[in-house]
Amino acid sequence: MDKQTLRYSYLGYFASQYAKKDDIDFDTLENMAAGDNDLEKEVLKELINEGLIEGIDVFDDEHFSTITQQKGKLKLTAKGLKEILNIFPEEKEEIIADIVSGSESKNTNSIEINSIHEKLLQKIRQDFEFKSKNANTTKIKKIFNETAGSRYKAEKAIEKLKKEGYIKFSYFDDIASFCPNNLLTDKAINFLDKTNEEKLQKAIKDIGTPLPSTQEILEAIDTPKEIHEYIKKVEDRVKNEKEEKKRKNTPSITFSGILGQNCGEVVAPSGEDERRIQERGFKVENGIYVLRGFAKASMLAAASTPEYQYQREINDPHQESLENYIKNMKASAKYLPEVTLVCRRQLPISYKAPPSSLTNTQKGEILNHEYYSVDVKEQELYRIDGNHRIEAASNIYQQSLVAHEQNPQERIIDLYLPFAIILWTETQEEDGELIQNAINIDDEAFLFFVLNSKAKKLQIEDNYKGLVKSSTLKAHELDIADKKIKLLKEFNKTIENNNLVNKAFQKSRPLKQIAEILSKIENEISIEQFKSIIYRMHKLIDKNNWLYLKNNFKFYYQLIFYIAYMHSEEEECIAVLNNIENWSKKYCFDNTTFEDPILLYNNADKTNNLMPLNIFVAMAFDKDHINNFTEWIETAIKNIEEEKPKYKGRLHLNTIMTHRGYNIDLIDDIMQKIKECSIFIAEISTFSKKEGTNEAICDANPNVMYELGIAHNLNKPIILMREEAKFPNVPSDIQEKYRNSYNRNKSQETREILQKAIKAVIEDYYD
Prior knowledge:
By secondary structure, the protein is an alpha/beta fold.
């Protein structure tokens, strides 16, 4: 049997079972395929992928039938039924008759919602798919499954509504023409128009949550462009009902503290109030009510959630840094500011007797500094400030719970954190309780802005100064606070009481300059690397050659630091600074154009290709030959710069190594230079004599081949050079097109060969 025949056979069988309301028998499917399991699987997969049948999504090659029956029951989809009616037009009437017969034979009082639901769904799906390219049938189906399924107990609702004359139910020849008007009676439509669901909800209140507005469904089908709005209404209603139900069923979390008014006005006392002021404190009015106290981190995390309409997304490095600080900082230096939360519903506030330790003056006037508590549900509070603190402390708590379960000796760490719960607006008494009015989310967003922008921030230099000069805090403790501090501490040693440091740099608040540029560099810098950068930076500053940059950019010293960070050779740094100086001067750039040194550096690189083109040469040790190569390449560079003025000052030949053998420092230096080079030249000749003869043999030099392999791995442009002899055996994947042979005794010719090869690389890679 071929695949197409089996496909039609299966669809016919599915239609027959659909009409009978019977399940699919997998043995029958296997028999229809004449025992060809591979063909059976192939056809079923195809039908499922096309959306004609549904019920399983896992296929197991060895146990197909068993897995299929375990995973679910295959059934025909609405799309599948439509496909069958198109494929078997002569059987259409018979199939419809079977369906009608099957439905009419059932008890009228137990009509299945699936039949109605499927046709409602099909109608919406058809209209929506044909009129909108953005149809999301999966989402629509999910919503209808929720609203017309078990959640709303729709079978009972429809049964009751039918008895009361609000709905009717019948099948039609053309399923595609089915619409809700065939389901609703005129009485129902008029009823819905007049009552706007109020009486409908009352009529079926004994069933549970009411069905979605049928009028809304009608409007959505008549105008498919509004389906998105309808979907959102249903989603919002379901979400709100779930949240309210969850809130009522979850236990309350109690927060206790002092109730006061933030930014309230002190009521001016009269002469008669002096005794009251002494005994009870003063009275405040017209402020925002705030409950302040302490609570466990686990409670704060459970009771609150971030509001991402205005709250920043979690910054993972910042949170990890906080967790590290909490875990490792010594107790005397561990401190977290209070977290600020807000509740959006009317919130009963219960009076608490103040602790006996409070004096009369501390107790304060009612509504000012009394001791109160509030009960909230899980995630009912919203975080205005302190999201990272709560998440970090909560993570530590969860980790400690796991560790404690594995080893009871491990402590459970649940930090005690300060909080402020904003109660907003005017607070009134009702039946002896204080009730808070709900607040608009816009006010929360504004307060978030105020908390994060209006408070005076410490200057970076002021912020770090105390820690940099501290003598008691150890290196690992400084690391916990901020990894930049150990670098700033090292930098401070180079400038403090050092008369050799550039005077202008000394006056530029150097600690601030270095702290700011370090905060912009994402990669971690080691102490040794930092020392090297600072050394190059001081040497560059002392040259004082780039007066335009110095006079027009306030971040001049940060720029020099960044260039010293990006380039390990002083000559490269000078070349880059020269080019940025000329470029900035040419276009009159200044602080108003660029406010960031890295941005200036990157734009200069992209716009004008200012970066130096370093040439690295790998060759066998031969002092005279190395000197010759150096002279040939430098002459070639000079000629290329004359021919191509835009490369003037950009081509640099790294000093060719004149040492025999390797050591660790030398290998690191070679690796760094190869990494930074723009052109790699490999002179791979090594001559030896064939044993027992005077015949010269040209072999590949092993050291050169090692460096060549590094360059090849880094995708560097490679020029291969060899003396006139048989070309050494070089792996085919690194036989570059820039291959040349030369005669060391023909200097002019060799220089021209090198010049031509270097020029070709420049034109291919950098023009």
